[in-house]
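Late entry, evening session. Most of the bench is empty. Finally got around to the prediction I had been postponing all week. Sequence below, unchanged from the version circulated by S.P.
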Amino acid sequence: MAKNMEISLLYDFYGQLLTEQQAQAVSLYYNDDLSLAEIADEMGITRQGVRDSIKRAEKSLLMYEEKLGLFKRFRRTEQSLRRIELLAEHLKDNYDIKIADEIIMTAKSLHE
């Protein structure tokens, strides 16, 4: 997974654990795709201050994931749900079992 995407996803899980300044800098950089200079202007700090804030935030986000593993668990759950859907579709297509519809709907509702 590309680092930009990884940090953006980790921010979704752990962003509220960052300082207000770190959260704002990461959001503007990764989600809004602003440059360091643009963020510095918006936040009223130096470009170096923005860079340092983002680097500290990245380190924190990676540490939170290492210790808590919520994103890893979420991905594993999503993959399992997709597998359940595929198996239920196969069950429905090959055996015309009505309960397969309920399995499919339940799995889909968990990841929507």
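Two things to note before I forget:
The domain at 3-68 is CATH 1.10.10.10 (Arc Repressor Mutant, subunit A).
The mean pLDDT is 89.
Will write this up properly tomorrow.
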